[in-house]
Amino acid sequence: MFKTLLVEDHEAFRQSLREILQVQFPSIIIEEATEAGTVMEKVRQFIPDLIFMDIRLPGGNGLDLTRRLKEAYPRITVILLTSYDFLEYRQAAAQYGAEGFLSKGSVTRETIVALVKSLWNQAISPKKEGADAL
């Protein structure tokens, strides 16, 4: 079971991302957060494999949240999202521990699907190997 948390305050983008994921990965479990103040509690309750995190959120920012999340949950993959594709944001994303950075203005369905497929395969591969060993 692969779990994803969408942390995005822009409803149209969040719903588009949700739709892409649900169509391509019917068994994926998706939760959502729309503001910084609810993210840590959602993560504690849900423990996602992957988080798509907007950089600019009501009540905080995705960079600080990413740093805090990676300290507490280093195995969760965080992909930062932004409408502002600045070099400084890309550098900060890496510095704060994000595994990826996507510009909302140029990201495609294919990019999202390929990224999640790669992460999904990584997440289930160790389980398959362990099951085969039994």
Structure notes:
The protein is an alpha/beta fold. It has a single domain (3-133), classed as Rossmann fold. Helix content is 52%, strand content 22%. The chain is built from five helices and seven strands. It has helices spanning 11-24, 36-46, 62-72, 87-95, 109-133, and strands at residues 3-7, 29-33, 50-54, 56-57, 60-61, 77-82, 100-103. A five-stranded parallel β-sheet has the order 2-1-3-6-7, sandwiched between helices. Strand 4 and strand 5 form a beta hairpin. The two termini are 20 Å apart. Mean pLDDT is 90; it is low at 127-134.
Summarize the structure.
It contains 5 helices and 7 strands. The chain is α/β, with parallel strands linked by helices and 134 residues long. It has one domain: Response regulator (Rossmann fold, 3-Layer(aba) Sandwich), CATH 3.40.50.
